[in-house]
Request: fold
Amino acid sequence: MTLKNSEGQRVPEVTFRTRTDGQWKDVKTSDVFAGKKVVVFALPGAFTPTCSSAHVPRYNELLPAFKAKGVDSVVCLSVNDAFVMTEWAKHQHAEDIVFLPDGNGEFSEKMGLLVDKSGIGFGKRSWRYSMLVDDGVIKKMFLEPDKEGDPFEVSDADTMLKYLDPNAKAPHDVLMFTKPGCSFCTKAKKLLADKGWAYEEVASSPRNLRAVSGKASTPQVFVDGKHVGGSEELEAFLAAQ
Reply:
């Protein structure tokens, strides 16, 4: 791996073959980067374990935080075709991230970051990295170390956010156990919506509720791994924030 484009240089000029509304659309480098502040994270392959379970989900979660720091778009780049990237975006529920198919590896090759993963049946793929690009110029790169395997140490979303603002706070991780027809669950959802906090909802049973919270009533809300409780406890908790 020989890095060709690094901090202070412009990103390579290529044409990406993308799909929009079921039609082919050619997208040039300038379409993606000109006049914009863009966060890019590149990875080895769509639907692969680390990429699907950690890399994309966290950038998706932190997208509002990036926007708040003046980032115009967040781009996921991989050496996959447009059909695969489109379906992966849907699978990840990450339609607000730009999934850019570097199908022929041209962009990655010009970056000097096209690597041979034939040993695991992948052929040539992009090395894992992230970068901040301002009007086509690379301002910062977080390049994973050149070692065996698939290192994932510095190209994560939290590292990029901390670079943009060392004092930035990531959004809270909120999990809510609910059941259908629960008016207290509706109240809890409204409290979180009014606060602007995103949450993940899990349909509960008495057994899994007792297992995680020691309670059998709904909702049961957890914030950043801490058990807050039901809607009344949540209301008090949010009032104190």
In short: The first strand starts at residue 15 and ends at 20. The two ends are 47 Å apart (CA to CA). The chain has two domains: 15-164, 174-239.
